[in-house]
Amino acid sequence: MPSINGKNVLVTGGAGFIGSHLCDELLAEGAAKVVCVDNFFLGKMDNLKTALKYNNFILYRDDARQFGVMQSVIEKEQIEVVFNMATIALNYSFFNPFDAYMVNVEIANTLLELLKVGAYRTLIHTSSSEAYGTARYSPMDENHPTDPTTPYAAGKAAADMMVHSFSKILDLDISIIRPFNNYGPRQNAEGPLAGIIPATAKRIKNGGRPIINGDGEQTRDFIYVKDTVRGLLLAYEKEESRGKIINLGSGKDMTMNSLLQGICDYMGYDGKWEHKEERISDVRNLCANIDRARNVLGFEPEISFETGIRKTLDWYMENEII
Ligand SMILES: NC(=O)c1ccc[n+]([C@@H]2O[C@H](COP(=O)([O-])OP(=O)(O)OC[C@H]3O[C@@H](n4cnc5c(N)ncnc54)[C@H](O)[C@@H]3O)[C@@H](O)[C@H]2O)c1
Of 10, 73, 85, which is best to mutate to test ligand 1, by the most ligand atoms within 8 angstroms of its C-beta? Predict the structure, then answer.
């Protein structure tokens, strides 16, 4: 069983929400070197405060789409494993649909070309539950059809198909992890690409009302970011995951009404909510079947929503982000 201990690892999008937690965990697990390539489209230096304390953490402010850039970083740093975490958040689909789609495909393309020529050994590629579109049955296993409803999701689904087919035809060392909705510290809290949890808490703190789109009965499967990071590491360690797509979720769904109520309870808010139109292209229901993650990775989510939301909002308060 391969271990991350002693390996030279590269994380694309390592200054982002999930990627920065992954960098911390890789360093804590004894990776020889953790190299982050992030163009800081949404990444933040603050997310790297812990990682930057390690001498073996190396940061490149660069574009992971660029073949030449990635080739020289991978060669120079003698990278063995790549975790592909870079993307531009779903809501970008509404501002720049072409780029929201292409960024996912182009980064995957670059990483595949480099894997094909043996520049590094293993790719752990990150997909998204959004690739499925709304649930036709629930919980959704990995055989559920993909039917993306946004350019972001289409880019994720297209990248997955490319990565999956390369792994089969060229027998490349690749696992594809498909996380459901992540939450936790460091999720972006600013502007139109903010996560719903920090954005709602911030509105309440600033005297505004929580906003709900549509009837609020749409569901998501929320997984705490540290659980996702553990699943990603397991995907590297368990070679049985190679050539497979594997869901990572809590296995439980929650309505957006319940999510907002949880935030209101934490913030001590019992006022009115602002109701807006249902967002175009919003997926109606998502809930993960995590049997494959259990069987192949030995994965079990550890953080309950009650604990996770408290840890998350405590962090935003302590860091004065909300
Ligand atoms: N957050 C979620 O709920 C969720 C759910 C399912 C899947 N995912 C997937 O997990 C991964 C990480 O998501 P996240 O929530 O941490 O997103 P994020 O936006 O917080 O982080 C993505 C990072 O990628 C960087 N980036 C964007 N374009 C880049 C480029 N061309 N070159 C280098 N870096 C670039 C951004 O600056 C950012 O730091 C993504 O693949 C995403 O699709 C996330």
Answer: 85
pLDDT at 25: 98
Q: Which residues are catalytic?
A: 152
Contact (Cβ atoms closer than 8 angstroms) between residue 288 and residue 221: yes
Instruction: Tell me the pTM.
Output: 0.98
Residue of 17, 63, 65 best suited for mutating to test ligand 1, as the one with most atoms within 8 Å of CB: 17
Chunk the chain into consecutive blocks of 10 residues (it has 322) and report each block's average pLDDT, rounded to whole numbers. Answer: 97 98 98 98 98 98 98 98 98 96 98 98 98 97 97 98 97 98 97 96 96 96 98 98 98 97 97 94 94 98 97 97 90
| 316 inside domain | no
- Residue 129 CA, closest ligand 1 atom number: 6
Structural domain harbouring 130: 8-181+225-249+288-302
Is residue 81 one of the residues assigned to a domain? Answer: yes
- Confidence at residue 281, expressed as pLDDT on a 0 to 100 scale: 86
Tokens encoding 127: 């997909």
CA distance 135 to 20: 30
Query: How many domains does the chain fold into?
Result: 1
